[in-house]
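Shipment paperwork, digital attachment
Item: protein structure file
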Amino acid sequence: MLKKLGRILKDRRNDLRMTLRDVEKTTGISNAYLSQLENDKISQPTPKILRSLSDCYDLSFQNLLTLAGHPIFEEKIVSRSRTSVFDSITAEEENELKQYLRFLRSRGRSK
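Attachment content:
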């Protein structure tokens, strides 16, 4: 059976031998709110709160987000090929391109 967010937070806090007041001092999250989280009265805390708790408890932020039902967006690295027409330009061509780019940018500002 999968543990709920509140149970995981409570178990981790107990493993670290921290009181709710200790966590409050560390994170700035009120002990009353923390108690509600641990007792599953609050099921979807904000990512900001989850970040503070993940740092305090040394838990995975993404796992806490998932347990709280927040969507996780995987960061995709888009590779741009540098082998293009710009790889073989001369210094003179590069200067002309820079001048043209300045011209284009200045036109956009005057509108």
